């Protein structure tokens, strides 16, 4: 694989990340490495090697105390001295580069201090106790959070368990993942020295895990460059084609984006709105996606306009001027200021059409929104600081409450931490984590009590049930979506209101079919775990579950009454109408007048009464006949066509209806009673599930009549 394909960050036109760094001198890591080898500076002077870090840090935090950075660098340099990277550079150049990435994004001092030290515990003799003693508990926690678990101890499970450990640490401090993302970005930038197979393995993990995490934490600056670096390694041919498209477009004399930019500047100037209007080129993966969607690309497809203003109200002022003075494409409008994305992102999205038919996309946001859009949680400084400290440690005014969500525990992270505890082994955790993170869009659904649930796009009512109730959702029997009864398999949309209908039976069980409609790990793991703990019992050899008609026998040790029956092979057997037993129900029987033997379910209330009256039980077991008759009661809410839908569901299961009665509605509830002939008793659970899945039906059970003396 060529060096250009494996490391697209090498100098050249339109390289990934170069657009953001244009006009800034490139950092010479070899020079930094040489400076590091010269040894630490005097105790009161900042080492030359971290001058770029200090400069970037002071740009965001003018009053920051740089002494922790000096001391962290001295410890890191002395600890890593003599270690070299595969590229031949001194190892200290790696933590320096990682720290510079974070400093440029506006990370606060504690994060940068931990970043300088992030490999010391893993790769040197430095211990976590030493880090705590020198830099405090916060830095120790961050360093520990990104320290890998040893392969010697964990074997093949080391990588998934390291990520599990890191995610748990992120649950208490999101800065852990910030350091990991910057660490992976620098490693990806320098991946060209690795063997092709190792490049591909690292790129796949980056694609499946790190990039989605960067998206969820809102760190777009890291996410987009990681995407381009992965694209170059995993799809070198498509990468080269996309690069060629970008280079060819850059050489064109006409630039529709520049023309619209100048027009927008004039419109806003006349309106008296102070704003910056910039061209924001698309990165490689974005261009590739657009080309696959639109085919041949035109000049306006290679970038978007970015309008930056000072106040929230100015965003809407800009929007009004654009839609008044230019030709808006209304279908492209989205308001992520009023309704921010789950990853803190806020912006207005719109588009305007040129006379030649080209469409120019426009993003409108405040400077603070832009900072958060680029750096996500990193831009928020220390999210755990007290308000006064946070105010002193930020550059410019603090964002209004509506401009930020709680960064310490985003909803997606809480859900991830919940289900990872239930993941039984590293392989399940690793595959489920990738599956969870692959769901790259989140929806919000509302509960009737005013609360909300955050779910991935494509989630169903089953997912909503487990998100709200945990394993108690096993008892869910139905749902109302936007006020209308709906199947549990119903896929939810952003903004839906969901009311979950819960049964009262504590022994309720989830349906195996729910797995087909469960998209969230918490739902899938809970259902799978229940099913594994409650396997369908195998029928004992003497009592096949597939049989229906009971036969009567009794060992010699039983009471005499049960032996009268044994000696009468022609005894008449009757299924009790009070509990209508069917296989594989546990059954017992009693002898009644005329030599008839009546069979009951063991839990039938009539059995207790007859035992109390001194009646002797008769041993029975199921015989070989497979057909059975059963009476079911369906409880439902009243709605048109419900009876037709229920009978259709029964017929689709291949079951004959012997009789049916429908009681008059009471408080909008209706009771249906069906006597049904099943060709196979083992099919009864599936039949009951099919009836429960009919919209409006909230419970289906076996008929329970008043138990009398047989």
TrEMBL record:
Residues 1-26, 387-410 are annotated as: Disordered. One of its GO terms (molecular function) is kinase activity. Residues 91-188 form the HD domain. Residues 631-705 form the ACT domain. GO terms for cellular component: plasma membrane. The keyword Thylakoid does not apply. One of its GO terms (biological process) is guanosine tetraphosphate metabolic process. Pathway: Purine metabolism. It comes from the Bacteria. Residues 395-407 have a biased composition (Basic and acidic residues). Belongs to the RelA/SpoT family. This is Kinase. It comes from Streptomyces fructofermentans.
